[in-house]
Amino acid sequence: MQKIAQVLKSNGTDGELLISFFDVYPEDIDLQEPVFIKFDGLPVPFYFESFTPRGTGRALVRLTGVRSLKDADELAGSAIFADYFEEEDDEDLTGWIVLDASTGARIGPVTGYEDIPGNLCVYVDTPSGQVLLPLHQDLVTSMDHDNKEITLTIPEGLL
Fold first, then answer.
1. In-domain check, residue 159
2. What digits encode the pLDDT tens for the residues 57-110?
3. CATH code where residue 121 lies
4. Which long-range contacts does 103-109 make (Cβ < 8 Å, 24+ apart)?
5. pTM for this one?
6. Which of 84, 130, 146, 152 is deepest in the core (most CB within 10 A)?
7. Residue 137 is part of which domain span?
8. What is d(CA 67, CA 142) in angstroms, rounded to the nearest whole number?
9. Measured between alpha carbons, how far is 60 from 74 in angstroms, rounded to an integer?
10. What's the gap between Cα 94 and its chain centre?
């Protein structure tokens, strides 16, 4: 499944949602196929009952089963996934060098992965031992494919 959108907020009192898209355009959405929102790590399917594009990267939608302001507010901030988009092959970062975005310091090479539900992490060998760092899109500041370096904003206390 590919993350295609995020619920920004509820809209009105009857369950409408304002969503923002990632790497897809509203016109690429197949309204006949389900989308998924994860609850307790499990994908729950929803279908679009209405879909009104709002510019190039947002839409006002109504999903099956979301009928009230309370229902819509519970989904605010949730990621929306779809399984009908062809995903790019994930790049193997093993051997890439992790750099600290705040200092530019070399942390060490990526030696493996840990797929914690909802949070992919990488093992990195440092001079003081192996550490586990989150590999979330919000923390990746740059990727240098030529030099095989990835620069991360590393949350305080992880090193």
1. no
2. 899 999 999 999 999 999 999 999 998 765 444 567 889 999 999 999 999 999
3. 2.30.30
4. 107/131, 107/133, 107/152, 107/154, 107/159
5. 0.54
6. 152
7. 97-152
8. 41
9. 16
10. 21
CA distances from 151 to 23, 83, 119, 135 (A): 21, 29, 18, 10
The whole-angstrom separation of Cα 58 and Cα 4 is 11
Strands (E), the chain: 2-11, 16-21, 35-39, 42-46, 48-53, 58-63, 79-82, 97-100, 106-116, 119-126, 129-134, 140-144, 149-152
Residue tagged 């370096």 (tokens):
149
Q: Would strands 129-134 and 119-126 be described as parallel, antiparallel, or unpaired?
A: antiparallel
The residue out of 82, 114, 140 marking a domain boundary is: 82
Same-domain status, 15 and 78:
yes
d(CA 65, CA 79): 17
Question: Could you give the CA distance from residue 79 to residue 110 in angstroms, rounded to a whole number?
Answer: 27
3-state secondary structure of 74: helix
- Looking at the structure of the chain, the number of domains it has is 2
